[in-house]
Amino acid sequence: MSGGRVDLHTHSTRSDGAYPPAEVVRRAAARGVRVQALTDHDTLSGVPEAAAEGERLGVRLIAGVELNTESEWGDVHVLGYFLDPADAELEERLRWLREQRRRRIELMVQNLDRLGIAVTIEHVERIAQGGSPGRPHLAQALLEAGHTRTFDQAFTSDFIGKDAKAYVARVGLGPAEAVALIRARGGAPSLAHPGTAERVDELVPLLVGSGLVGIECYYGEHTPEATSRYLALARRHGLVPTGGSDFHGRGEHGAALGGVSVPAESVAALEAARARWREYHAARVGER
Ligand code: AMP
Ligand code: ZN
Ligand code: FE
Ligand code: FE
Fold it and tell me: What is the DSSP string of 55-88?
């Protein structure tokens, strides 16, 4: 792999990003990205379009996904790499997650309505452009309806922040289940932005037991001290340090495409970890 930036965490209109998959790749390429993972929430549907554009522009596109989980461990998001968009079994699980996601947004719309904050599900769906709906789409609708002055204001206790009256908890996977699902489908799971998780020193060994392969050490919101701490955690547990922008193209969440420095060795190490595991698995099947 020669030169170029690496970005292993990006979102498109297939979930809560602002730009279509091919456009995200074009913008990444223009910023010098040569390896990009598209990691939309609960869907791989943007991967073929992004990969085709990547091929045209010399960007290697890694098929990824981000699974936001619900548990007592805070905001635990699990990234999955090297998945197959044509994997029907995986798609079935993702479809269920997307249904739960939509239901949760509908419930939050109803709660807001009861609190006198009028916003419609049709408006949210229009913003989602057919993508997997999430709180960022609802935040955009609240902004457009004039209930908030900024996109980020929606994530406070007055609207749909975690401690807000209108907030609805997620029905979905726990952190270990998300890791196990990605491993079971032949992918490499990495713990996203570990700073949003609680008691991460206890959580990481638990997830390693379920097959965690990486941890997102390089992230826009990490201080140099935080990055060092997560790199030490990665070393302690034999995890691959991953990283990315978490670009959404909307609000202040996430960095610019390619804006977080990620070593190319991380990609090679992720692939090696996955290959080792596949060999081991094949040998075990052979033993039977
Ligand atoms: P959801 O999965 O629907 O609960 O939405 C979570 C997503 O909302 C995260 O993945 C972020 O993209 C976005 N988000 C969470 N907190 C904030 C925030 N304070 N400001 C802007 N976006 C946020
Ligand atoms: Zn998102
Ligand atoms: Fe996330
Ligand atoms: Fe993300």
Answer: HHHT-EEEEEEEEE--STTBS-EEEEES--TT-H
Tell how strand 60-68 and strand 188-191 pair up. Answer: unpaired
* pLDDT value of position 1: 44
* Cα atoms found within 13 Å of the Cα of residue 188, Cβ hemisphere only: 27
What are the distances in angstroms from CA 118 to CA 105, 141, 142? 14, 10, 8
pLDDT at position 112: 98
Q: How far is the CA of 253 from the centre of ligand 3 (A)?
A: 10
Residue 188, token pair as written in the block: 């490499």
b/e code 164-190 from CB counts within 10 Å (16+ = b): bebbbeeebbebbbbbbbbbebbbbbb
Work out the average pLDDT over 186-199: 97
Nearest-angstrom CA–CA distance, 229 and 118: 44
Q: What is the pTM of this model?
A: 0.95
Give the per-residue pLDDT at 252. Answer: 67
Q: Distance, CA 77 to ligand 3 centroid (Å)?
A: 5
Q: Cβ(80) to ligand 1 under 6 A?
A: no
Tens of pLDDT, residues 149-163 = 999 999 999 999 999
Q: How far is CA 252 from CA 71, 151, 220, 246, 259, in A?
A: 26, 8, 11, 11, 14
